[in-house]
Each structure stands twice: as C-alpha cells, then as structure tokens.
Design brief:
Blueprint lengths: L1 H31 L3 H13 L5 H13 L3 H14 L4 H11 L12 H12 L3 H24 L3 H34 L1 E5 L3 E5 L8 E6 L3 E8 L2 E5 L5 E5 L3 E3 L1
Antiparallel strand pairs: 1-4, 1-7, 2-3, 4-5, 5-6
Helix pairs in contact: 1-2, 2-3, 3-4, 4-5, 7-8
C-alpha cells in the first residue's frame, strides 16, 4: 500500500504544479494580448489557490492598472512591496497609482517626519533588520577580542574604535528593527478597493454615514467586528467600513 500512497501524493503534486503553470501561462498570454480581464481572472485564481509571491502580486497589480481598477492596483502593489520592500519597479508604480487617488488626507503628524519614519522602517523586512543587528554585534565582539588579545597599539586603537562604532550601529538597527516589528504587529492597514464607500458611525447598514472615501485610499485598521472594520485615517477621523470593500495588507 505504501508505494501506491506515494504515487498518489506524487500525482496530486504533479497535477497541481501543471495546473498552476498552465494558469500562469494563460495569464501571461492574456496580458501580452492586452486582454487584461482574462489575465486578472487567471492571476486571481493563482492567489485563491494559495500562491504568494512578489512577482504574482506585481503582475496582478499591473493588470488591474491596465484595466482601470485603481483600488485593486494599489492593493496588490502594496502586497508586492510587503514581500519585496526594496524593489524599484513596485515603488515607482505604486507612486504613479497613488497619485491618481481622489482622497487627499492631511496627516496630523508632520508629513516629512512621517514619510522618513515610514520609509526607514519599510526599507528592510523585520527579518533583515534582525540579521543586520546580529551581524553587527558579532563583528563588534570579534573586534573587541582582537582589541584585548593584540599587542599592537595601532591594532588595539583600530579594533576598539571600530567595535564601538559597530556597537552603536547594533543599538540603532536593533531599535529600528524593534520599531518595525512593533509597527507590523500593531498597525494593520488596508486599501479601499470599491469605487466609493460610505464610512459609517456604527457597524450596521442602517447607521448614519460620517464621510465618503474612494478606491485606492490607504486606511489603518483599528478593530475587526465580523463583517465590519473600524478604521482610522491619518487626520484622526474614524468610522466603520465593510470588510468586502477593502483589501487588508
């Protein structure tokens, strides 16, 4: 029975792989033929099947952009940036798409400070920050050992100075990594994917609306209440939106 079991497992994996490859090829052919709706259907099928990659999200964002669906465009570019935060193409395309959004929300926090903080924290993944901290600490320890064991005054001075600089670098990268991890765990964002939505006072359809938002606007998720999300804007305004109207990053 065991060989049959292994053969069945192999056939399932092989069939799934061939299916995904065919779907990807169909999506790419449709995109090249400027049939963006068909490309979107095939790319979305890959997402539904559990495939996650920077390239998949980026291509899907491009297809939605060509199909004039701004909200989904920004949503998938954001997902691509989450996986590969340093990619230049994603950064440029996301900037172009974001410039087309209707809602221009003034932040309470100083824009320059907010932008710098956001760009610094998102320049690397939390894992990259962690490895960089470990590396700087490790090299600093080695240099300190050289300082202690060396008999040369020049080597001692060089090793001590460099180890001190690396310890400072470790402290900075550790703080940035911790901030990035804290921001990632505490701050959940979403993109409005519907053309226009009403922000409600309460999580019910019968509640009164507070204001409107349009597709592509980035919002902060404060609370999840079943089919509703309590969201907050950079200007401090809060309200409830339907989960179906947004894409959570």
């Amino acid at each position: 029975m065991k060989p049959i079991k292994y053969i069945l497992i192999f056939l399932v994996v092989f069939t799934t792989k061939n299916y995904s490859n065919n779907t990807l090829q169909d999506a790419e052919k449709a995109y090249d033929s400027k049939n963006y709706k068909e490309a979107i259907v095939n790319y979305e099928q890959l997402v539904k099947d559990g495939f996650k990659s920077y390239q998949l999200y980026y291509n899907l964002g491009n297809a939605y952009f060509r199909n004039n669906q701004l909200g989904k465009t920004i949503y998938y570019y954001e997902l691509a940036r989450k996986i590969n935060p340093n990619d230049e193409d994603v950064r440029i395309n996301l900037g172009i798409a974001s410039a087309k959004t209707v809602d221009k929300i003034d932040a309470k926090e100083n824009f320059f400070i907010s932008a710098v903080k956001s760009n610094v924290l998102s320049s690397f993944t939390t894992q990259s920050w962690a490895w960089f901290s470990i590396l700087t600490l490790g090299v600093a320890c080695v240099l300190f050992f050289v300082f202690v064991s060396s008999k040369s005054i020049g080597v001692k001075r060089f090793a001590f100075t460099l180890s001190c600089l690396l310890l400072i670098t470790f402290a900075v990268t550790y703080a940035l990594g911790y901030s990035a991890l804290k921001s990632k765990s505490e701050n959940k964002f979403a993109i409005i994917t519907t053309k226009e939505i009403k922000i409600m006072n309460e999580p019910t359809v019968s509640a009164s609306s507070k204001f409107s938002l349009h597709e592509g606007t980035k919002i902060r998720v404060v609370e999840n209440n079943g089919d509703w999300l309590l969201i907050k804007l950079d200007n401090g305004n809060e309200g409830w939106v339907k989960v179906l109207d947004v894409g959570i990053i």
